[in-house]
Amino acid sequence: MGDNRGLRTQIITSDEIRAWCNESRLPGDRPELSDVAAVLIASGFLTPGGRAIVVRRVSTGLALPTLPGGFGELRRLQRAVAQTEHQLANPVMPSVVAAMMRNRLNGLVRRRDEARKMIVTGKGVFAGGTRAIRRERRENVYLEIEERERLFGGLACTPTPNVNTPGYMRRAGSAAIDRLAGVVGQVAARSGYPQAGQWAGQILMPDRGDTATPGGTPGSATFVDGYETLLFLAGHFYDRIIGNPAWRSDHFEIQRTQVNLHAELAEIAADVIALRAVRLDLDRAKANGGFDRSFAEHIDRREATLRPVWTELIDRVQALGEVAAVVESAAVELRVLTEYNRASTIDDRIDELIARSGDREISVDNAKRLTEQVRSGEEQLRIYRDVLQGNIARISPAAGRELPARYEPN
C-alpha cells in the first residue's frame, strides 16, 4: 500500500482550530470567500425551509444573488455604516463634524440600499413573472421575499478577514475621507473652532501610519470573534474542495454522492449562528441576574452543556479541512497520471521507450519503472478515497441536534 505520510503534513488539527477561534485570528493572508460560500453561510440565518431552497439552488446550478464587489465588500460597507452611526451618537460631537458625518452616512446607506435591491429584488436571479414563480414554487426552488430579506441580513455579516480594523473608513475611501477632513478643517478655521478640525482628524483619519493588521501581527486574518473565525474556516475549506478539479473528477464520483458539501456548509453555519445567539443570551441573562448566586450557577450549568456542541462544530470543520487536504494531495497524483497519459496510452509509451533504446534490457527496465509509477499513483488515489470515506462520515453529526433560537430560563 502507498505511503500517505506527506498528506498528514497538510492537515489542520482540531486543537489548532480551537486556538485560532480563541484568538479570533488565522495565520497568513486568506482570500475572501467565494460568492457561493458566502450565500451558503448566510443561509444559516434563514428558516430551515429557506435554507433548504438555497442549498437546492446551489446543488442544481440555479442562479444566486451576486454583487459586483463581492459580499466581503458588503460586510465592509455595513461595518462603515455601523461605525459612522456609533460616532454620530456621541452627544458632544461638534455640529460641523456631525453635518459632514451625516452626509457621509447618507452616501453609505444609499450604497447599502442599492446592494439590498440587487439581492432581494434583482432581476435575473429569482423568478419574476407569475408563471415562472409558480413553476419555481412547484419545483421548490423559489425563495420568498421575506427569506431574501433574511439572506441580505446574513450576507451583510459575511465572515471577512480584517473587517473590524481601526480606521476602516480611511482605507475604504482614502481620497474621499481626505477631502471630507479638509473641508471640516477649513470650516473650523473660519468659525474659530479649531477643536472641530482636530476631532475630524481623530474620527476620519485614525492610525495614519498604521500599515500592519490589527493586533500588531502582519500577515494574519483577524475576525470579530471565534464564531466568525469558525464560519470563515468552514467556507474557506469548502472553497478549496469545490474549486479543486480532483473533487470533480471521476475518481471521486462515489464520494461526491455520499455527501452534499453545500448542505453541510449551510448546516454548520446554522448551528454556529444558533450557538452564538444562545451564548449571547446566556451572557446577557447572567449580566442582568448574576447577583442571584443560584441563578448564576444555573447559567453556568447551562453554559457547560453547550461546550460539547462547540467541540462538535470544531471537529466537523476540521473534518472538512481534512477533506480539502486529501483532495489537494490527490490532485497532485492526478496531474502526474494525466501527464503520463497525455500523449498516448501507457502501452504506446512503453513501445516508444523500447523502440528508442538500443539496450533492450534497459528499455524493459524503463518500461517497468513507468508502469510501476502509474500503478503507484493509482494506488495512492485509492488511499485518498479511503481517507475521504472516513472524513466525510465525520462532517455530519452522528445525531441531529437542534439548538433553540434563544435562551429561555426554566
Keywords:
410 residues, mainly alpha, single chain
Please characterize this protein's 3D structure:
- The protein has 410 residues and is mostly helical.
- It has a domain at 167-205.
- Helices cover 69% and strands 1% of the residues.
- The chain has 17 helices and two strands.
- The protein has helices at 5-8, 14-23, 35-42, 48-60, 71-88, 95-120, 130-138, 145-155, 168-172, 174-191, 194-204, 226-242, 253-258, 261-289, 293-341, 346-356, 360-395, and strands at 25-27, 220-222.
- A two-stranded antiparallel sheet has the order 1-2.
- The chain is globular and about 90 Å long.
H-E order:
HHEHHHHHHHHHEHHHHHH
| Alpha-beta classification | mainly alpha
Strand segment count: 2
The termini sit apart by 57 Å
Task: Please state roughly what percent of the residues sit in beta strands, choosing from under 5%, 5-15%, 15-25%, 25-35%, 35-45% or over 45%.
Answer: under 5%
Instruction: Please tell me the overall pLDDT.
Output: 77
Radius of gyration: 27 Å
* Portion of residues within helices: 55-70%
Largest sheet: 2 strands, antiparallel
